[in-house]
Design a protein that fits this description.
CATH class of the largest domain: Alpha Beta
Oligomer: single chain
CATH superfamily of the largest domain: FAD/NAD(P)-binding domain
Helix content: 25-40%
Largest sheet: 7 strands, mixed
Bound molecules: flavin-adenine dinucleotide
Number of domains: 2
Distance between the termini: 21 Å
Number of helices: 7
Radius of gyration: 21 Å
Length: 300
């Protein structure tokens, strides 16, 4: 049985920060991730709103966080966590690499994209439909694309795509954007972006197995090779079952990042937080590690 003080699930910015602080508190830490360390940072082209760094590439920030952990002797272990069980004062964590035992658990599993719900959406992923402009944008050089959404991600990625694509059609179901004003101002003044406010995409048409056009609720058809969907996120919390309290899948915590089960903490995008950003994920990680240290002292 592999044992540790604190088992951190997810090596995005939240999990890596919690690991950094926990290591500095002198705890033994396991940091698990089913993918490459960095989480959603690896999907971001440039981050402009993380204080002190100016503009930074998402993968560079991830790499730097990983290097800092490396200096403390910790690297993320590649494994998927499938369940957590309370066992007396400890927790048993089932993973793709076997079972672990920990005194405390920090859930930092983040979130993923939400689907638009189009009939052939799944079939067209990789054939014109994408949820990640940084990953797939370069395939649409000089082509026409449709972006759906009105939050920060949709606006940032519409701007990013406008540098690559011939034309960007931005469709949003409300008549105002939800995202930051600084971003919506940039979008509105960008000549390559055409706005379709108070409209909805209802159909993705295909030709030869690839997206050919997108249809709006009023029957208007926009010819496009790409459809980028940014309509919200879904928390990666299904593996938790009924272990702790959740709200629409997001883990309920208090300001100390404590969940409804003593010894289990949740941080970053997976929790019910009003703002899902790198800076908030990092802040959550620091608080959780501090609170775990206090908890472990109380229990010992
Ligand atoms: C396209 C895009 C652009 C963005 N732009 C910005 C921006 O400009 N500024 C900004 O501040 N924020 C931005 N964000 C948001 C920011 O990336 C997130 O808020 C942040 O990454 C959340 O960090 P996290 O650690 O909570 O989760 P994540 O980064 O999602 O990391 C969670 C990690 O948990 C792992 N995981 C999940 N389930 C399991 C499991 N069962 N077992 C093991 N591992 C698991 C995942 O593999 C992942 O590595 C953007 C996000 C996207 C997608």
């Amino acid at each position: 049985m592999n044992e540790c003080d604190v088992f951190i699930i997810g090596a995005g910015p939240a999990g890596m920060t919690a690991a950094l602080y926990a290591m500095r508190y002198g705890e033994s830490v396991v940091l698990a991730d089913q993918g490459a360390p960095g989480g959603q940072l690896l999907l971001i082209d440039e981050i402009e709103n993380y204080p002190g760094l100016g503009k930074v590439k998402g993968f560079e920030l991830a790499e730097n966080m990983e290097k800092e952990l490396g200096k403390l002797g910790l690297s993320a272990t590649f494994m998927e966590v499938s369940s957590i069980k309370k066992d007396g004062n400890k927790f048993k964590i089932s993973t793709s690499e076997g079972e672990y035992e920990a005194k405390a658990v920090i859930i930092a599993t983040g979130a993923g994209h939400r689907e638009l719900g189009l009939e052939n959406e799944k079939h067209l992923v990789g054939r014109g439909i994408s949820y990640c402009a940084t990953c797939d944008g370069p395939f649409f050089k000089g082509k026409d694309v449709v972006v759906v959404g009105g939050g920060d991600t949709a606006l940032t990625d519409a701007l990013y795509l406008s540098k690559i694509a011939n034309k960007v059609h931005l469709v949003h179901r409300r008549n105002e954007f939800r995202g930051q004003k600084v971003l919506s101002d940039k979008v509105r003044s960008n000549e390559k972006i055409t706005l379709y406010l108070s409209h909805q995409v209802v159909k993705a048409n295909e030709e030869g197995g690839k997206l050919s056009s997108v249809e709006l609720e009023n029957g208007e058809v926009i010819k496009a090779d790409g459809l980028f969907i940014f309509v919200g996120i879904t928390p990666n919390s299904s593996f938790l079952g009924s272990l702790i309290e959740t709200e629409n899948g997001f883990v309920v915590t208090n300001g100390k990042m404590e969940t409804s089960l003593e010894g289990v903490y949740a941080i970053g995008d997976v929790r019910n937080t009003p703002l899902r950003q790198v800076s908030t994920a990092v802040g959550d990680g620091a608080i959780a590690a501090f609170e775990v240290d206090e908890y472990l002292k109380r229990k010992s």
